[in-house]
Amino acid sequence: MIVCGVELTGSDAVVCLLNMDRGQFNLPECKVRKLSLPKNHSREDLKRFQAAFSELMAERGITSVAIKERMPKGKFAGGAISFKMEAAIQLITGTELTVTMLPPALIKSTLASNPLPIAFADTGLKAFQEAAFITAYVGQLQGRHN
Can you state the angle between helices 130-145 and 104-113, rounded to 10 degrees? Predict the structure, then answer.
């Protein structure tokens, strides 16, 4: 099963695909590393973002998306645009897409009991994809336990 890990930062949805087959993890080739929404976006821009995300999932046959949850208020609060992008992803219709929100505390506790099987530096991913990679990894583990 391939899980798409997503970290929403500013006006970007950083993505990382992670496949688990017979207990072995691998990173499917994907040229798309992030999808962006213009800062002064219109309704049409939001629809284009949603369509692009949906198309990426459909092309790759992905049915599971794990999004790193952002806090609604406080020091580490997410911005308004990131919450719009989250809603656009959650409201994708016409597919069998399951979207799961992963709170930072769950990610931390899961990593404590199931450390990453590979150092991030050895994955070949870009540094800005690390949180999306970790989210995809935890999403894979949560999917197995549900």
Answer: 70
